[in-house]
Specification:
Length: 218
């Protein structure tokens, strides 16, 4: 049934009129907004913080991570906190920041891989070199954000972690591809066919993209 909004939610909704949310914005807007708080960050604070929380809570050893959703009330509560540039110390379930992280990617105004590169991605879903080459064509901010995500997923793709999470590279690509690429077609057959290609493209990146440079970047 319908529940009454909390005081915190009402306050947040009020402030959101003046201060746009970190969810549903463009990457450029997010970077502009964090300029005062984190002027030296090359990546969105929300992306790095939520990713680090998943790992800090042992997400890479949690069965079904990214597939099993976090408790919806806890995810919503965390979203309110993140929009105030805060990460609570009370988090215990890695599925909560993992769910919110997926939501952040999914709700970006423009996907991490911008629409003009979509065709190139699904044309090169079986070619590792061509898939990696597409990444190098992206605008710098999108390239860094995507490389950070792939570097993050590569941690989960390690065999020692897959044994625990039951989330191999195919499963990781399946759950994350819809958050990185957006098919514009209304034709169910095209959507179905492209879904497979989107997954394969992301799988290529997880397996073949060199993201070692990300380690020193925040």
């Amino acid at each position: 049934g319908l529940r009454k909004p909390t005081v915190e939610e009402i306050t947040h909704a009020r402030s959101a009129i003046v201060t746009p949310s970190l969810f549903g914005s463009s990457l450029e807007e997010i970077m502009l907004r964090q300029q005062d708080l984190y002027p030296d960050n090359k990546l969105p604070w929300v992306q790095t913080q939520l990713s680090q929380q998943v790992l800090a809570l042992g997400g890479e050893q949690t069965e079904g991570i990214f597939r099993i959703p976090g408790d919806i009330d806890e995810v919503n509560a965390l979203k309110l906190q993140v929009d105030q540039w805060r990460i609570p110390s009370s988090l215990s379930d890695p599925n909560v920041p993992a769910s919110l992280l997926k939501l952040w990617y999914r709700e970006l105004e423009e996907p991490v891989i911008p629409q003009q590169f979509y065709k190139e991605c699904i044309s090169n879903y079986e070619n590792p070199d061509a898939a990696v080459a597409v990444v190098q064509l992206l605008p710098e901010l999108n390239r860094l954000v995507l490389c950070y995500l792939i570097h993050f997923l590569q941690i989960f793709a390690q065999p020692s972690n897959v044994g625990r999470t039951k989330m191999d590279v195919n499963n990781l690509a399946m759950v994350m591809a819809p958050n990185c690429l957006r098919c514009q077609s209304d034709d169910p057959r095209v959507i179905f066919e492209n879904t497979r290609k989107e997954m394969s493209f992301l799988r290529m990146l997880i397996v073949h993209l060199d993201t070692s440079f990300i380690k020193g970047l925040v």
